[in-house]
Each structure stands twice: as structure tokens, then as C-alpha cells.
Amino acid sequence: MDVDGDSVGDSSEVVQQIGAVEDYLADLDQADVSTLDAVAESGVDMSTLLDEDGQSVDVPGGQLLTIAATAELPLSTVIGVARDSYTAALEANPDEANA
User: Fold this and answer.
1) Is 60 helix (H, G, I), strand (E, B) or coil?
2) CA-to-CA distance for 80 and 50, rounded, in angstroms?
3) Can you list the alpha helix ranges (DSSP code H) found in the chain?
4) Does residue 93 register a pLDDT over 70?
5) Which residues are 50's β-sheet partners?
6) Within a 10 A sphere around the Cβ of 28, how many other Cβ atoms?
7) Between 10 and 37, whose confidence is greater?
8) How far is the C-alpha of 73 from the C-alpha of 93, rounded, in Å?
9) By three-state DSSP, how is residue 40 classified?
């Protein structure tokens, strides 16, 4: 899957999105995390979810939610890969960590 880097944002935005999703998932029980994983894996973009009253469901993650849905991967998998990729990028370019 190709991802347009410009649509995801700069490194500070990405790490903020990763952290927000990690915090959100940490506050849920395993059944709720599994449900969100299944929703993303089924191709539903959670950045556009509405509740039964038509109100936006505020799931953090921005473009990472869209990536999970497009790739049809569990949200927790995408967040793990994003965190690993971000960490590897910082290790390869330590000057970015101080930018």
C-alpha cells in the first residue's frame, strides 16, 4: 500500500496521532479494542464514523484511521507499525528528534 506522506503530516503530527490513538486504546477494555480492530479491518474509515444520533464519533488518529481502513488492517496493527516506523526513522535521522 502506498501512503502519501503529505496527507499524513509532519513527524510531530504523526507522533501526536500515534500517541493519541495509543492513549485512546489504553483506556478501552480488550473487547472494545477488538471491535475497533474489526471495524478497521473491514475497511471502515473510523475518522468519519457517526453514532446513532448522527454525531461524529471522536476516535483520535486522523489519517492513521484512514490508512487502517484502506489497508483493511486492525487499528492496533497499524498503530504498532506506525510507532515502529517512526522510531526507526528517528534512529536513522537523529537530527529529526531534536527538530
Assistant:
1) coil
2) 25
3) 5-8, 11-26, 30-41, 63-71, 75-92, 94-97
4) yes
5) 56
6) 12
7) 37
8) 28
9) helix
Name residue, grid cell 480488550. Answer: 30
| Residue entry with cell 478501552 | 28
Contact (CB, 8 A) for 99 and 81: no
User: Tens of pLDDT along 21-62?
Assistant: 999 999 999 999 999 999 999 999 998 888 899 999 889 998
Residues 61-95: b if buried by 16+ CB within 10 A, e if exposed: bbbbbbbbbbbebbbbebbeebbeeeeeeeeeeee
d(CA 49, CA 76): 18
pLDDT at 98: 57
State yes or no: pLDDT of 6 exceeds 80: no
Region of residue 51 (phi > 0: left; psi between -120 and 50: alpha; otherwise: beta): beta
